[in-house]
Amino acid sequence: MSLTTKRSLMAILIILIIMTTSCSPSLTGGQKEFVSDARDGRETLPIHSASLPNALSLPLTATGGKAYIAGPDFAGALDYRYRWNAQRNVFQLGVGDASCELTADSTTALRDDETIVLSDPPRLYHSQFYIPVSALAPLFKSDLSYEIKDKEIVFHPVDGRGFDSGAGENEAFGGMELDFADDPADPYKSGDLDAIDQPVLRRVGEKRTAPAAKRIDIDKLIARAKRYVGVSYAFGADPYPLSGQFDSSSFTAYVYDKYNVKLGRTAGAQSKQGVQADRKRSRRGDLLFFYVPGRYRSNQVVGHVGIYLGRQRMIHASPDSGKGVEIVSLNTPYWKKTFLQARRPGNE
């Protein structure tokens, strides 16, 4: 074989390698892990059906008689964040935190703190993570509305059009029925630590309030939480002592853990702990839970959590402001509309 022929074959081989690599976006990018806010840019644009203008379609990949969807494409189309952790071989997916964790070639997955057994395992192929379509129902339950058509998966809007963050700007000054307010009986409102075990008197017919978190020094807890203002947000953040970062639920869990209260791994798991509280009778230290707006996701699913500070303020690890852990006013259109519930930990 002549030298010219060898060079020609080598050039063709290099071109083929480049084409193969570019066809499927890499999860790792040559690094140990890859973290992406899928809303900042999508590798594959979703297809909007002409016959169903509100529907969104994504192509499916078939292998071994099973249908799969590329993880980054799924995340980008539905406004999820995702993180690929090559060390753990885990694909993390969620909005404010990693509510779902899928492991390549494993039929065991996590949704919040619940272990889910899958019919088919996710696959890692050419540095791309593929989620089996059969995993969507057990993992996302009522979060999504979709159907399979030929070689596509078609997503439909859930809960109408969802929250328009640009609407209702005057609600910051009105909409009193959605305002947050302090509980007059909050034993820590004035810093009176001795009042925590005192009975709370109420008038006949008055709504009973959730009991105080008796095992927690709320003043100290809030003081500690404020120490982390400015710490950066990272989706699916590793433990704070290792990463120096938080996501929304790892922040609340870390702060409460300092006072011997173990919270769940995600905001969804934490929303099932403690006792129900009322936004009109909020107490310092209450956990506040919100949904994260998305056209193709349910607005009944917890996606974010923060700690109530009193006087209609909250401290949280923000995924969107660029400030990380920050203190914000709650009486704004966004927080009023996306609020789902409040919980008072420490009473289990």
How many distinct beta strands? 20
**Uncertain regions spanning at least 5 consecutive residues:** 14-26, 28-50, 161-174, 191-209
Categorize the overall geometry.
globular
What's the mean pLDDT score? 80
* Biggest sheet architecture: 6 strands, antiparallel
Question: How much beta, percentage-wise?
Answer: 25-35%
Q: Give the terminus-to-terminus CA distance.
A: 78 Å
Radius of gyration: 24 Å
**H/E series:** HEEEEEHEEEEEEEHEEHHHHEEEEEHE
Number of alpha- plus pi-helical segments: 8
Alpha-beta content class: alpha+beta
Percentage of helical residues? 10-25%
Order of strands in the sheet with most strands: 1-6-7-8-9-10
Describe this structure in words.
Strand 6 and strand 7 form a beta hairpin. The protein is built from eight helices and 20 strands. The strands form four sheets. The protein has a six-stranded antiparallel beta sheet. Strands 15-20-16-17-18-19 form a six-stranded antiparallel beta sheet. A four-stranded antiparallel beta sheet has the order 2-3-14-13, with helices on one face. By secondary structure, the protein is of the alpha+beta class. The radius of gyration is 24 Å and the shape is globular.
